[in-house]
Amino acid sequence: MLMRLIPILAFLVMQASHVTADSRNDLINAIAAVDANVVFMRHTLAPGYGDPDNFSLSECDTQRNLDAKGRQQASDIGAAILHSGFRFTQVFSSEWCRCKETTELMKLGKWRLFPGLNSFFQGHADRQDTLEMLSLKLEALTKGVTLMVTHQVIINAVTGASVGSGEFVAYNTDTKRRKVFRLD
Fold first, then answer.
1. What confidence tens digit (pLDDT) does each residue in 104-140 have?
2. May I ask which residue range the UniProt record assigns to the signal sequence (predicted)?
3. Are 182 and 167 in contact (CB under 8 A)?
4. What contacts 78, CB < 8 A, 6 or more positions away?
């Protein structure tokens, strides 16, 4: 019986490693497909809709935050990025706690807050000012690929793409080409 299982187990191991290799290449392939210089990521799972009425940027307990699944999703995505061997030139996050926690849990190294990634969904940030700040930042990108962890409204305003929690858009700021992808 064991002798019959060995070829099956060997086949399953090869298939699992093939899937892992494909998953690792999703990031690199998406960037290459559009010659992206920026990758936008929507924060990982934070159940609910919008933010509570008592929202305060400086107090995480007044915001919609990641749940256990969202925290695990962020860790898994970070591990997939590190496993791919790809390294971002810069990493920026919205000032919202769900974006900061997503960025922190990915463990990609040093990152910075950038208000040009803040959500204007419920008027907590001014749409025009936010997009103007972001536009200037995007114009100033020089070499490499920058990761920006942000919100659906920002990603949609810049790229025209709608993405779910933890999804990405590889984007070329010159050609405006985009590629939506997932890593988990």
1. 999 999 999 999 999 998 877 899 999 999 999 999 9
2. 1-21
3. yes
4. 105, 106, 107, 108
Going by the DSSP 8-state scheme, the letter that residue 85 receives in this structure is T
Q: Which amino acid is present at 6?
A: I
Beta strands in the chain (DSSP E): 38-42, 90-93, 112-113, 146-150, 168-171, 178-181
Q: Of 63, 48, 69, 53, which Cα lies nearest the Cα of 98? A: 63
- Cα 67 to Cα 65: distance, rounded to the nearest angstrom: 6
Of 48, 101, 60, which Cα lies nearest the Cα of 78? 101
Q: What is the CATH number of domain 2-181?
A: 3.40.50.1240
Q: What is the pLDDT of residues 146-183, one digit of tens each?
A: 999 999 999 999 999 999 999 999 999 999 999 999 99
- Residue 82 CB-density burial (10 A; 0-12 exposed, 13-18 middle, 19+ buried): middle
Token representation of residue 84: 């791919």
Does this model's pTM top 0.70? My answer is: yes
